[in-house]
Amino acid sequence: MPYPIIFDTDPGVDDAQAIAIALRHPDIELLGLTTTYGNVNIETATHNALLLSELAGQSIPVAQGAAAPLAKTKYPAPAFIHGDNGLGNIELPPVSGKAVSQSAAEFIVDTVNARPGEVTLVAVGPLGNLAAALQLDPGIIDKVKHVVIMGGSIKEGGNVTPVAEANIFNDPHAASRVLTAGWPLTMVGLDATHRCVLNPDHMEAIAAGQGELGKVLAGSYAFYAEFYRGALGIDGCCPHDSCALAWLIKPELFTTTKGHLTVVTDGDAEGQTVFAPAGRPFIDSRWNRTPTVEVCTGADGGAIVEWIVDTLK
Ligand code: BDR
Ligand code: CA
After folding, report:
1. Which domain holds residue 265?
2. Total structural domains in the chain?
3. How far apart are CA 234 and CA 219, in angstroms?
4. Mutate to test the pocket of ligand 1, among 10, 13, 193 (most ligand atoms within 8 A of CB)
5. Any catalytic annotation for residue 10?
């Protein structure tokens, strides 16, 4: 039976590939794309979400969401990683569709309430839309099937600061609300996504299998790969956001453990996700007081990349 999901995203090169998986995988029923600023500004995020579903020949509702963090000052979008247009500065075809009139938060609330117990939220950008949905209707905590977050880091360290992963750093206040809301949640962070590297041969297979959409995925990945070559010295890229969907469909490819998360919202460690393993006492209870969640501590990177390529080739 397919998994009905809402995919919350800031497309973004690796988001684009994950959106392609969400659109194509036979076990995923994509109910809607909700957009957030992050890798790009909010208008570009919405444009790209519409474009990618049109290129896949599908008409998926797109609901526009957060344009800025809840509390902190917004940093400029990382054009040097994703390009000014979020898709590696390649030339893009025109878009004909428009976003729905509901906000992302309204779309999430209405969709979850319409199918209680069925809908999984997969969030792969800063978490303002999920935080806004929680504020609009806290009742969704008991009605979502699951929440999967690409974000955070337990032992891997950060990618935008020594300790913080980008999606959490971009809006730590929203992340704190979402990661501690008490809904069933799995965090797929850098401890898992850094185990996965998509190389140029993988991208060639994906491009060949995806027609017009494939051209955009491969063209944008070439730009993203340049960043990885310079920053991490690898010949390929980490498909962060696709890993959240890999966890949904193939959880056996991940190692996970349960415990409590807190998010640092201020100071030099802003955006850090602090993990206290379940059952382990610390000097006081502050790190154990949040609800129990599941975090990924590792992954079979080769098998995940194979799953991504098999899905899209
Ligand atoms: C995350 O940050 C964004 O740049 C990527 O799209 C991914 O969601 C990785 O840290
Ligand atoms: Ca993303």
Report:
1. 3-312
2. 1
3. 18
4. 10
5. yes
For residue range 126-177, what is the model confidence (pLDDT) as tens digits?
A: 999 999 999 999 999 999 999 999 999 999 999 999 999 999 999 999 999 9
- Does pLDDT of 230 surpass 90? no
28 pLDDT higher than 90 = yes
CATH number for the domain including 189?
3.90.245.10
Measure Cα distances from 158 to 60, 169, 193, 313 in Å. 33, 9, 12, 31
Whether a cis peptide bond, with omega within 30° of 0, leads into 12 is yes
Of 38, 35, 40, give the one whose Cα is nearest residue 98.
Answer: 35
Residue 159 Cβ < 6 Å to ligand 1: yes
Kindly give the number of the ligand 1 atom that is closest to the alpha carbon of 193. 9
Does residue 166 have its Cβ closer than 6 Å to ligand 1? yes
Tokens 């390929």, located at residue: 236
Model-wide pTM > 0.85? yes
Which candidate, 43, 99, 32, 87, places its Cα nearest to that of 68? Answer: 43
* Residue 252, strand partner residues: none
From the candidates 240, 241, 260, 300, give the one annotated as an active-site residue.
Answer: 240
What 3-state class would DSSP assign to 33?
Answer: strand
- Asked if 32 contacts 59 with a C-beta cutoff of 8 angstroms, the reply is no
